[in-house]
């Protein structure tokens, strides 16, 4: 069974994605192997808006139902059940994985899943989140380490390999 997910925030970064999927202690070889089993392609999520979160480095997506609201992101195919478990753990309680449809660049529609925001609506800012700024800010690695630690993502991998 193969799974897929649509990423619109920090997980669009391969550094973040591979840290979550492979764990903190994974070798470059492990990461390359994982990268070879997944497919990452640009995709568009309609009827949703991406918002910066007040006081956080990462964004949230909300369903608006308005066909003019689009979120450009990445669909990741070829995921395994363990990958989905790691992603669920990383996303935490403020996000919920829900079924959705996204469009490839050639307008083909495909079923996938997306982590929508179910946390405190007061934390949603009016600002769109910028991936380029997230990368350029240089906070990616520190933030990633802290978040993985907080949500015990690496502990999950340790249990997996026993
Ligand atoms: C559209 O793009 C997707 C992903 O690259 C591909 O799998 C699919 O076959 C394409 N469909 C058409 C009709 O070209």
UniProtKB/TrEMBL annotation:
Residues 1-27 form the signal peptide. Residues 6-130 form the Gamma-glutamylcyclotransferase AIG2-like domain. The keyword Endoplasmic reticulum does not apply. Keywords: Signal, Transferase. GO terms for molecular function: transferase activity. Pfam families: GGACT. Belongs to the gamma-glutamylcyclotransferase family. PANTHER family: AIG2-LIKE PROTEIN D. This is Putative gamma-glutamylcyclotransferase.
């Amino acid at each position: 069974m193969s799974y897929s997910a649509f990423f619109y925030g920090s997980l669009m970064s391969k550094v973040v994605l591979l840290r979550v999927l492979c764990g903190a202690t994974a070798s470059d070889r492990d990461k390359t192997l994982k990268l070879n089993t997944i497919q990452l392609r640009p995709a568009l999520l309609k009827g949703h808006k991406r918002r910066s979160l007040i006081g956080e480095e990462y964004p949230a997506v909300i369903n608006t139902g308005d066909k003019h609201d689009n979120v450009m992101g990445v669909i990741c195919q070829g995921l395994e059940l363990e990958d989905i478990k790691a992603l669920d753990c990383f996303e935490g309680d403020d996000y919920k994985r829900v079924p959705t449809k996204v469009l490839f660049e050639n307008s083909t529609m495909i079923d996938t899943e997306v982590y929508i925001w179910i946390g405190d609506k007061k934390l949603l800012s009016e600002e769109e989140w910028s991936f380029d700024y997230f990368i350029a800010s240089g906070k990616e690695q520190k933030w990633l380490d802290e978040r993985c630690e907080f949500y015990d993502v690496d502990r999950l991998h340790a249990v997996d390999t026993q």
